[in-house]
Amino acid sequence: YTVDKLKNLSSKLRVGIFHPYCNAGGGGEKVLWVALQALQKKYPKAEFYIYTGDVEATPEEILDKVRTRLNVNLDKNIKFIYLHRRKWLEANMYPYFTLLGQALGSVFLGFEALNRLNPDIFIETTGFTFVIPIFKYIGGCKTGCYIHYPIITNDMLKRVSNRQSLYNNRSIIARSPILTMGKLVYYHIFAWVSIDYQHFVFIFFVLFAQKD
C-alpha cells in the first residue's frame, strides 16, 4: 500500500498520528517521537501530521522541546493538526465513571480530528481506541495503533480488589464490599467493550449499508 502510494508523486502519503498531549515531554512522548523519527527515515516522501490539543504551543516550540528535552531530532516534514476539544479527555470532567466519560469524550475529539484532516493512514498512540473506528469506517483510512499505557491495568484491578483508597478508587468505594464488586464489574465490562467496540461499529456499518 505505502509503496504504491509513494510512487504516485501527485499524491503524497499522509500519515495522521493521534497524540493529544504530544507536548507533555514524558515517556509516552519519547516513544512517539522516536517512532516518528524511524518512520521519517523509512518513508522520507511521506507527510506526517500530529493531532494535538496543545494549542498554546507553536510547532517550532513543540519540536524544539522534543530536541532539547528528549534528544530526538526530526525532519521538518511534520505538520500539527490542532484540536480544540481536548478538554473532553480530562479526568476532572468526569467525577464518576471517569473511564467511560473519557472514552466518549475521545469520540467527540476523534470527529474533530477527522474533520480537520482525513489521512491515508491513521495511527492511534494514546490508548483511546474508540477513535480508531471513526477513521477506519467513516474516514476510510488504513488504521493502526500502539498502546503505551493500557486503559485498565492489573495494578488498577488489584488496588480496587484490595480495597485501597487511592486516586482511582474513592474511599467510599474502598470501604464498601458491594461498591468494590460493582467497580470491578465495571472495569471488566469496560475493558471488554473497549476491545470489541471496533467489531460492534463494523457490524453497525454493515447493517446500515445493507439497509440502504
Task: Describe how the helices and strands are arranged.
Blueprint: H1 2-7, E1 14-18, H2 27-42, E2 47-52, H3 59-69, E3 78-82, H4 98-116, E4 121-124, H5 132-138, E5 142-145, H6 154-161, H7 171-174, H8 177-211
Domain ALG11 mannosyltransferase N-terminal: 14-193
Family: Belongs to the glycosyltransferase group 1 family. Glycosyltransferase 4 subfamily.
Keywords: Endoplasmic reticulum, Membrane, Transferase, Transmembrane, Transmembrane helix
Short description:
With 212 residues, this protein is an alpha/beta fold. Helix content is 50%, strand content 11%.
CATH architecture of the largest domain: 3-Layer(aba) Sandwich
Strand order of the largest sheet: 3-2-1-4-5
Please state the structural category: alpha/beta
Helix content: 40-55%
Task: Assign an overall shape.
Answer: elongated
Alpha plus pi helix count: 8
Radius of gyration: 19 Å
Strand content: 5-15%
Mean pLDDT: 83
> What is the domain total for the residues?
2
Largest sheet: 5 strands, parallel
Q: What is the β-strand count? A: 5
Topology-level CATH name of the largest domain:
Rossmann fold
Unreliable stretches = 5-10, 199-212
In N-to-C order, the SSE pattern is HEHEHEHEHEHHH
Distance between the termini: 30 Å
What is the CATH class designation of the largest domain? Alpha Beta
Subcellular location: Endoplasmic reticulum membrane
Keywords: Endoplasmic reticulum, Membrane, Transferase, Transmembrane, Transmembrane helix
Pfam families: ALG11_N
GO cellular component, one term: endoplasmic reticulum membrane
